Amino acid sequence: MATVTQFAERKNFTQADETRPFAKGRLDVVNVGGHTIGRAVFEPGWKWSECVKPIAKTESCQAAHLGYVISGRMTVVTDDGKTLDFGPGDAMSLPPGHDAWIVGNEPCVVVDFVGFENYAKRT
């Protein structure tokens, strides 16, 4: 069953509740309507296994993602070997267990509605 939003609220990523920097990128997080939404900016050369793995301390990304790619290109490889390429306008659903990297020379901007609550969160 889907979680229902209980109240109206507006927030803007330019004034995020939290910004989490990591190598070659950052995550802006807003908590709105009782939900956490993240906007990530991944710079050219970013790769999860090099830039976020040291923070997560897991062999692959263990966050599930339900998101939308605004700009740039990203390749994802799941732990079971499936490869997916994402670009502007693509919606994505990814289960835990994957690596990802940026393709090309343009930053990749992704809005995620599920998986960024604890993503790149330093403990």
What does this structure look like?
By secondary structure, the chain is mainly beta. It has one domain: Jelly Rolls, CATH 2.60.120.10. 7% of the residues lie in helices and 43% in strands. The strands form 2 sheets. It has a 6-stranded antiparallel beta sheet, with no helix packed on it. A 3-stranded antiparallel beta sheet has the order 6-5-8, with no helix packed on it. The protein starts with 17 loop residues before the first strand and ends in an 11-residue tail after the last strand. The model has no long low-confidence stretch (mean pLDDT 95).
SSE order, one letter for each helix or strand: EEEHHEEEEEE
- What would you give as the CATH superfamily? Jelly Rolls
Q: Estimate the mean pLDDT confidence.
A: 95
Q: Briefly, what CATH class?
A: Mainly Beta
Task: Return Rg in Å.
Answer: 14 Å
Calculate the terminal CA-CA distance, rounded to whole Å.
31 Å
Tertiary shape:
globular
Biggest β-sheet strands, sense, barrel: 6 strands, antiparallel
Low-confidence segments, given as residue ranges, are none
How many DSSP-defined strands? 9
- Strand order, main sheet: write it out: 1-2-3-9-4-7
Structural class: mainly beta
Number of helices: 2
The name CATH uses for the topology is Jelly Rolls
